[in-house]
């Protein structure tokens, strides 16, 4: 796995912490986002009593849907590297009074857990320098029976393809400062490659898989069982 650049990691943490409030509103209120999150949790299909890890949980937008599926007897663990996002997620948990949901600060490739029944990552792998290796690490290190990924990338379908230039502008505008300086390509193309690599790893490593695109082809949802 490619080692993380400490300076870039620190800059990203600062960026996502500073803008945690904006990302929180987008994560919960963007058009169609709740439907996508519910679809991801449904594809993951955790059972009551399961332990589920939400990698890159951000401000906690997935946590209510995951807890709903595992029930009060299950466990949900959110993990994120940005202090501002973790703080908001913890506030959500405290206000809801969920004793079986916790949020910890850690990197996506340094998860503070030994195992899990299911792993979910939404809108995360495009931020990782080596997303395929990260997915492999989750599968080996946590040995989940189910895993699901939900990500945005450019559309290859006719309904969405004409909007790819606009999507590229949004990706560039929401990326941490200096992102373009570290790549020889546009942020949207880098995102495409990373999302494809992560989802391909999931589909190759799992025995039973499902893959679909939504939102005009911009949303990629893959799930697999082992």
UniProtKB/TrEMBL annotation:
Broad class of enzyme this protein falls into: transferase
Pfam families referenced in this protein's UniProt entry, alphabetically: Methyltransf_25 (PF13649)
The protein's name in its UniProt record: Class I SAM-dependent methyltransferase
Methyltransferase keyword on record: yes
Keywords of this entry: Methyltransferase, Transferase
Keyword flag Amino-acid biosynthesis: no
InterPro entries associated with the record: Methyltransf_25, SAM-dependent_MTases_sf
CDD domains named in the record: AdoMet_MTases
Domain of life: Archaea
GO biological process: methylation
Ranges of residues in domain Methyltransferase: 52-142
Entry GO MF terms: methyltransferase activity
Lineage of origin: Archaea, Methanobacteriati, Methanobacteriota, Stenosarchaea group, Halobacteria
UniProt-listed Enzyme Commission number(s): 2.1.1.-
């Amino acid at each position: 796995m490619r080692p993380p650049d400490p300076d870039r990691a620190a800059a990203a943490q600062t960026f996502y912490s500073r803008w945690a409030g904006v990302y929180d509103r987008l994560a919960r209120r963007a058009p169609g986002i709740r439907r996508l999150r519910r679809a991801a949790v449904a594809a993951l299909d955790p059972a009551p009593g399961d332990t589920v890890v939400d990698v890159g949980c951000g401000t906690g937008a997935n946590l209510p849907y995951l807890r709903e599926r595992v029930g009060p007897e299950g466990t949900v663990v959110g993990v994120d590297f940005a202090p501002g996002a973790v703080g908001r997620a913890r506030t959500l948990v405290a206000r809801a009074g969920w004793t079986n949901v916790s949020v910890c600060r850690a990197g996506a490739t340094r998860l503070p857990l030994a195992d899990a029944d299911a792993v979910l990552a939404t809108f995360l792998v495009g931020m990782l320098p080596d997303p395929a290796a990260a997915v492999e690490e989750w599968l080996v290190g946590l040995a989940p029976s189910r895993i699901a990924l939900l990500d945005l990338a450019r559309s290859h379908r006719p309904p969405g393809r004409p909007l790819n230039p606009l999507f590229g502008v949004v990706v560039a505008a929401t990326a941490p400062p200096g992102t373009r300086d570290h790549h020889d390509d546009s942020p949207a193309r880098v995102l495409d490659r990373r999302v494809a690599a992560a989802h391909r790893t999931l589909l190759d490593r799992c025995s039973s898989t499902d893959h679909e695109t939504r939102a005009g082809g911009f949303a990629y949802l893959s799930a697999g069982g082992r």
